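Contributing: when you submit paired examples, paste them exactly as shown. First protein:
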Amino acid sequence: MNRYQKEFISIDGNVFYADVYSVLVAFGVKCPAIQHAVKKLLMPGQRGLKSEVSDLYEANKSVVRAVDMAYARLRDSDGTSDEAEPEPMAEPEPEPKPKPKLVTWRRCVPVQISRWIESGQIPSGWVALEAHTQPVETVRQLPEGQKP
């Protein structure tokens, strides 16, 4: 049994296996457009190649083609037809393309505290990353040259 064969139980209770081609032969489907549509409709999106929407879209196109072929056969059989030509079916919207996954990149650099600098003495081009505030009295009590 291959992956396209399915298990069936007959009316008399016997188990048998069949694939889409066996079903088409059993029902006497001769039109290739109908065969294609049936194949797409029996397992839409399950064969691993196309999505469900894509298979249904293709099946719809095959049915439209089968209608055109049937009308042409009817018209060609006697040169005329009592049946009105079918109106063209509206084409369904094609499957939208998936939106790309967005990725945000950030430039990151390691930051090391090089030294504490009083607010009024920050060199140009430097950016303060952290601030620490203390009362002036506390700063005056620190030993000479030591900064918070």
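Second protein:
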Amino acid sequence: MAEIVAVDGSPLAPESLRLMEYLHNRAGEMSATAIRERISKAADELERSLDAVTEAQARLHPVPGKWSIAEIVDHIAQTQIRGTEELRHLLAGRRPPLPPVYEALRSGAGQWAPWRLLVEELHAVNRAMIAVLEGAGDSIGAGDPRVKTVVVIPRKLETERIEPQIFFAELNWKEYALLQRLHLLDHRTQVKNLHASITCLS
């Protein structure tokens, strides 16, 4: 297997290497049922974090230049739609077509669609991903199809500053599904932090 490097040509940071090791090891250990249950739990946690968010709060930008909560929810929904389709291809024995799911995917609906509609659509696409995994088998073979995906990992520089490292990875369906779980959990934390900062400013 060719060595993975970041899109800027730099070697993978320790944080990125740890993620790849985690995905590989956990995919080898976990059953399809366990992975599906973990994704379902992560989706539920994310959706519960939205319960206390009002329409007005969802549109605020407490961190200048960063997404609002509504934009985050739109991003997750759009990513889940594409991720579900890619999992459907992988489980059918096909390599998903390019392009990969890029890291800042949004539809623009986060800027204008009713907040409750965004939340309902997120719930629907989360359930769709879980439904696709219902028929997944446990075995992964060396010749099974892989998906090319974009991975973004925060890394600490020597200056103690945090910045993202972006790289492409080729993942089997279990590794890819586990990455989707981490994506849900990362944005759950982001939503909670944003809502807390909004509440403090109120």
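If you have annotations for the second protein, write them as plain sentences, like these:
The chain has one domain: 14-201.
The CA atoms of residues 91 and 136 lie 7 Å apart.
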